[in-house]
Specification:
mainly alpha, 5 helices
């Protein structure tokens, strides 16, 4: 089940496309079984763009460490809920 902070961030970032984004991230979470940290990184990297979200999900499927590295090169730790 998706963490509430991730769902709220998706709703804020993706506007009218938020349902598609929630579906994509939810499906990935079920498929991959990884921590919410990965989902937070994916949502951050997408920046409200569905095509970037799909690309970030595909990257995480290949190697989830890449999305952590790309998202957390700034001083923000996605192992904590969005504020």
């Amino acid at each position: 089940m998706m963490k509430p902070d991730i769902e709220e961030r998706i709703m804020r970032d993706f506007g009218r496309e938020y349902l598609v984004a929630i579906e994509l991230v939810s499906a990935f979470e079920v498929e991959a079984g990884l921590s919410p940290r990965i989902s937070r990184c994916i949502v951050h990297l997408a920046g409200g763009d569905i095509s970037k979200l799909e690309a970030a999900i595909q990257t995480a499927r290949n190697d989830w460490r890449d999305v952590i590295m790309w998202a957390e090169t700034v001083p923000f730790e996605f192992n904590q809920p969005f504020r």
